[in-house]
Specification:
heterotrimer, A alpha/beta (about 375), B alpha/beta (about 375), C alpha+beta (about 180), B: about 375 residues, alpha/beta, Peroxisomal Thiolase, Chain A, domain 1, 9-stranded mixed β-sheet, two-stranded antiparallel ribbon, 13 helices, about 35% helix, globular, C: about 180 residues, alpha+beta, 5-stranded antiparallel β-sheet, 3-stranded antiparallel β-sheet, about 25% strand
Chain lengths: ~375, ~375, ~180
């Protein structure tokens, strides 16, 4: 198995409503940007992987409809979707497909036009229709329930969570693609509307329209395309049991799948001390509260230490291990693209192309995805 | 390039409805059968690739329901291909070839009985320009059938022959939904559904599940003495709008087949392939797909069925299982083609066995009117 | 192939065409009828007929799960309907929230009534959590560790809503 690297990255502007484009055009915007970055044309692409959640736009077989935007005409096109993890899953799929030796250059595209439906209702429909749908309230409800357990276990306060949101939004100010550009304080978060106790409006991610595309290439092909490749060092995925109540979001202390997936990814990458060895993390944190539990699951601190890491600035842009220089999911969440944006942002950091949000001297970066009944994808990239 | 083998297969009977089983219970039946077939259990499986549809399942993230019954839980990775099971098989093959996993469980399920076929297949069409016309899977196919008949002089009798043959073959397949002893006149005189498609030109909509276990070269040899090798795989996609395509042609199937045949080293498919399982949602489609698979020249699908070559006693039997026209579980039907083709290669297809099968083809399709196609070549030898 | 012609940048397009941009609204009802399956049917039959909450006991690890299902989610051992047992209708709240925003309920297509309390309930003796409604919707009065009991509807139809909600057991404090 040869090396696989990311050689092209394209993101659209993320906004609450992209009424200027239909979904096909939205996809095309990201594809053009990724191809331009790699200085390739669609003819150079061997295969395409596309991810999006059908019920968010009410398009069945959306990979078919978007063919004119993706450039997939008469190419191998595969649609892979796994809920919130869709974007990171297609990145992993890009890695697997190139690793397999079947294709040299694979274009992956994650997209969502969330403004076209009721997102919370569509997410609520991910719960088991018979057992859990009547209580499910989009992503907010279950994440708030986890938050209440994290509070109980660690005595965490609403200020602790608010600080996370402030950091994310502050970082987003450096990211021209980010959906929300908010210069806010802890008090602003605390005084924002209570969505679902203890989750307040500014604790929670928005719903965004947008797309993200990347080109994955095998070793030789990648080096021919550019001398600035973000190489994939390892990937890992863990899912969880079918019902929310069984496991996935049962635990307030950690996200089980992220704990196990990062462990596997570190082992595969030969990373022994992730806190010291990783230079930057792009983590899929759907809310400030989730960020606390998720950080506790990365093996970079002791259980319950996440609030302290945020408070002491360890995870800030100037800290030892910057988290989400892009502003993360709290500032931008186009669901089918969100995980791909984490990988893309981590790859930009590796390639030194992150402009005002660049962390200096990034050699090793990690991106994560979150979705389903508490599932996690992890991808570790190196220079 | 190394090769991947199929080391276990399982399927449920496909039925009009399975009210006694939830999605998970139904899929477990197929997964258990595949595990038993391979003499394996969940601990032996490296990772899982599934195929299902959020629209058909009435659920965002349809694969959430199957985490336990595929043995995924928090111990493994599972990924869903939101398309036909043949694509999931190819992705499973690629994940196995990546050397990250030495075994992959591929699992597909769907219950056509629980959703509304017309609304769900109407949702395939463009929401801005086409949906309001009311097109769905059947009326879209009727447009294609008419164009195919017009361009190549395909007759309703030739289409009817496919229905007669496949429903007849289904009588040998205990897993098929509609075994029938039909005559050509029965098809021609059946109720008009959407001109020129009559009732017996159309597949039913079924409930069912299927599972396949893939293994790397080294692992396959440990698991079984009778591996079925994936010699080639290919997939491709045509333009979206019906008006952007010549519906009498299946260009994306030709591209998919050509990719698969190149990988498998097949240069003369009509002679080198012993049996084919194709995704015939409608009678005319089998004729088109045999063209796309290179069993005959474009436009000669009608002549091919007339020649008798694709009958059970011909030299290139197509759909010994009865095909999709005899049991159509969406997203699963392609994986059933893989299961059936693998059984043929193993010589274990019981009453529907074709003699001396060395090489078999499984075909899946996705979208409407064969917009997307996937071809898998299976063989006794690598 | 229209893709080549339409890759406009958002800013410009928005400025130039903003007044002309159209949205086409479609409301589509998609009906489904989901099978509860063999194990689910036992749960709903017992709930409807006898106000009993049924779980399943794994014959290998001994853990009890609600609702009953075909495989133990921990050891992946196949279970049978004979493994189904009645479990307690009292338990402890382990995670809660009070939903305080409107959204379209996918079950009905209508905006769901809010606010409402909901939480993960660990029924006594059961290993996993049951996610359900709480009677209390004042979050200053709900806390994790709170003891609750199921309140059944008088007229039951065989749905999760046959348990109207879980109400606080006064005086039992925390557990």
């Amino acid at each position: 198995m040869g090396r696989v690297g990311i050689v092209g990255i394209g993101q659209t502007q993320f906004r609450s409503k992209r009424e200027d484009v239909n979904s096909v055009e939205l996809v095309n915007e990201a594809v053009r940007a990724a191809l331009a970055d790699a200085q390739l044309t669609i003819k150079d692409i061997d295969a395409i992987i596309i991810g999006n959640m059908e019920h968010f736009e009410s398009i069945n077989y959306s990979e078919m409809w978007t063919i004119d935007g993706s450039g997939g005409y008469m190419k191998p096109v595969m649609k892979i979707t796994t809920g919130g993890t869709t974007g990171s899953t297609i990145a992993c799929a890009g890695f697997y497909q190139v690793s397999s030796g079947m294709f040299d250059r694979v274009l992956v595209i994650g997209w969502e036009h969330l403004s076209e439906s009721d997102t919370t209702g569509a997410i609520a429909s991910c719960s088991d229709p018979i057992w859990e749908r009547s209580v499910m309230a989009g992503a907010v409800g279950p994440l708030a329930i986890v938050a209440s357990e994290y509070m109980r276990i660690h005595g965490t306060t609403e200020e602790d969570a608010a600080r996370v949101a402030v950091q994310a939004h502050k970082n987003a100010l450096n990211n021209p693609y980010a959906h929300l550009h908010l210069d806010i304080t802890v008090d602003d978060v605390l005084n924002s509307a209570m969505l679902s106790y203890p989750m307040k409006l500014l604790d929670m991610c928005p719903t965004s329209d947008g797309a993200c595309a990347m080109v994955f290439a095998e070793d030789k092909s990648a080096r021919e395309i550019t001398d600035n490749v973000a190489w994939v060092k390892s990937v890992a995925t863990r899912h969880d049991t079918a019902f929310f109540g069984d496991g996935g979001l049962k635990h307030g202390d950690k996200l089980r799948s992220l704990y196990l997936a990062t462990e596997e990814a570190y082992t595969r990458a030969g990373i022994k001390n992730p806190f010291k060895e990783l230079d930057v993390i792009e983590m899929y944190e759907p809310s400030s509260w989730s960020a606390l539990t998720w950080v506790d699951s990365l093996h970079i601190c002791e259980p319950g230490e996440a609030p302290k890491l945020f408070e002491e600035g360890v995870l800030s842009m100037k800290g030892e291990l910057p988290l989400n220089p892009s502003g993360g999911v709290i500032s931008t969440n186009p669901i089918g693209a969100t995980g791909a944006v984490r990988v893309a942002e981590a790859a930009l950091q590796i390639r030194g192309m992150a402009d005002r949000r660049q962390v200096p001297d990034v050699e090793l970066a990690m991106a994560t995805g979150f979705g389903g009944s508490g599932w996690s994808d992890v991808m570790i990239l190196e220079r | 390039m190394k090769k991947v083998a199929i080391v276990g297969v399982g399927q449920t009977k496909q039925e009009a409805s399975k009210p006694h089983q939830s999605f998970a219970e139904m899929l477990y039946e197929a997964v258990k059968a595949a595990l038993n077939d391979a003499n394996m259990w969940f601990d032996d499986i490296g990772n899982v690739v599934s195929a299902s549809s959020d629209f058909w399942d009435g659920r965002t993230i349809s694969n959430m329901a199957i985490q336990d019954v595929t043995g995924t839980t928090y111990k493994k990775t599972e990924s869903k291909v939101a398309s036909d099971g043949t694509y999931a098989t190819v992705y499973g093959m690629m994940r196995t070839l990546s050397e990250y996993y030495d075994t992959t469980l591929v699992a597909a399920h769907c219950k056509g009985s629980e959703g509304n076929t017309r609304i769900i297949t109407n949702a395939i069409f463009d929401p801005l320009y086409q949906r309001a016309i009311g097109l769905d899977a059947i009326s879209g196919a009727a447009l294609q059938a008419r164009r195919y008949m017009t361009k190549y002089g395909i007759t309703e009798e030739q289409m009817a022959k496919v229905s007669v043959k496949n429903h007849g073959n289904a009588r040998n397949n205990p897993y098929a939904q509609l075994p029938m002893d039909l005559k050509i006149d029965d098809v021609l005189n059946s109720r008009m559904i959407s001109d020129p498609l009559k009732l017996y030109d159309c597949s039913p909509i079924s409930d069912g599940a299927a599972a396949v276990i893939l293994a790397s070269e080294d692992k396959a040899k440990e698991i079984t003495d009778n591996p079925v090798w994936i010699r080639g795989a290919g997939y491709s996609i045509d333009a979206f709008y019906l008006t952007d395509r010549d519906l009498a042609e299946c260009d994306s199937l030709r591209a998919a087949a050509s990719m698969a045949y190149r990988m498998a080293g097949i240069t003369d498919p009509g002679r080198q392939i012993d049996v084919a399982e194709v995704y015939d949602s409608f009678s005319y489609q089998e004729l088109m797909w045999t063209e796309g698979l290179g069993f005959c020249k474009p436009g000669e699908g009608g002549k091919l069925i007339d020649s008798g070559r694709t009958q059970m006693d011909g030299d290139l039997p197509v759909n010994p299982s009865g095909g999709v026209i005899s049991a159509h579980t969406v997203t699963t039907a392609g994986l059933v083609r893989v299961v059936e083709a693998a059984l043929q290669v193993r010589g274990e297809a019981d009453k529907r066995q074709v003699p001396d099968v060395n090489t078999a083809v499984a075909h899946g399709t996705s979208g409407y009117c064969g917009q997307g196609n996937c071809v898998i070549v299976l063989g006794r030898e690598k | 192939m229209v893709g080549a012609k339409v890759g406009v940048t958002s800013g410009r397009a928005k400025q130039e065409f903003n007044d002309e941009l159209l949205r086409i609204t479609m409301m589509v009802d998609i009906p489904y009828n989901f099978s509860a399956g063999t194990f689910g049917s036992i749960f709903f039959r017992e709930l409807k007929d006898s106000r009993r909450i049924m779980g399943i006991k794994c014959n290998k690890c001994g853990e009890i799960f609600v609702p009953p299902r075909v495989l133990c989610p921990e050891c992946l051992v196949e279970l049978s309907i004979d493994d189904c047992i009645e479990v307690s209708s009292e338990g402890t709240v382990e995670g809660f929230t009070v939903v305080n925003f409107p959204f379209i309920d996918p079950n009905t297509g209508k905006v769901r009534n809010y606010p409402y309390g909901t939480g993960n309930i660990k029924l006594d003796g059961v290993s996993n959590l049951l996610w359900h409604f709480l009677k209390e919707s004042d979050y200053s009065k709900i806390h994790n560790g709170m003891r609750v009991r199921a309140v059944f509807e008088d007229k039951r139809v065989g749905l999760p809503s046959d348990i109207r909600y879980f109400e606080t057991i006064e005086g039992e404090g925390e557990k």
